[in-house]
Amino acid sequence: MFKVESYNANRENNYQLLLKQLKALLEGETNPVANFSNASALLNQFLDRINWVGFYLMEDGELVLGPFQGLPACVRIPVGKGVCGTAVSRMETIRVADVHQFPGHIACDAASQSEIVIPMVDNGKLVGVLDIDSPEKDRFDELDQRMLEEFVSLLMNLYKG
């Protein structure tokens, strides 16, 4: 497996390979827990300079920890709180260059410096968010955002929740 940053000139092509791998992993599997687990493992293997990647899933009006790779994490996040809850309340991707500058940031891992959170929507219904943290400031750029949004879109197209 390659790392995105190892081939800087071909990052978009590498992301396209990631999307193909995701599709192959999910093909024929309908269990959301299995699919989110494999998706988080795939991203953890693919992305470098990250310290946490996983999913928070909507349950009874709040985000609840789902499959992830990394250190133990906050279990419940209210809508509107932290980066994840704010992404849900705005229904848009939030990319934060320095989490310590984000009002109301929830520090589950003190090593996290930057973060990207992408809402996951299935047929107009919010399923949860993909959350990725990095120990480096300003880790995620426009290409990461666009390709990770595509990753989530593919995941939701194959979602059988």
Automatic annotation (TrEMBL):
Q: Which terms in the GO cellular component ontology are assigned?
A: cytosol
The record's listing under SUPFAM superfamilies reads: GAF domain-like (SSF55781)
- Species: Mesobacillus campisalis
Positions of the GAF domain: 31-160
Gene Ontology MF term list:
L-methionine-(R)-S-oxide reductase activity
Sequence similarity: Belongs to the free Met sulfoxide reductase family.
Superkingdom:
Bacteria
> What lineage is this protein's organism placed in?
Bacteria, Bacillati, Bacillota, Bacilli, Bacillales
- Annotated protein name in UniProt: GAF domain-containing protein
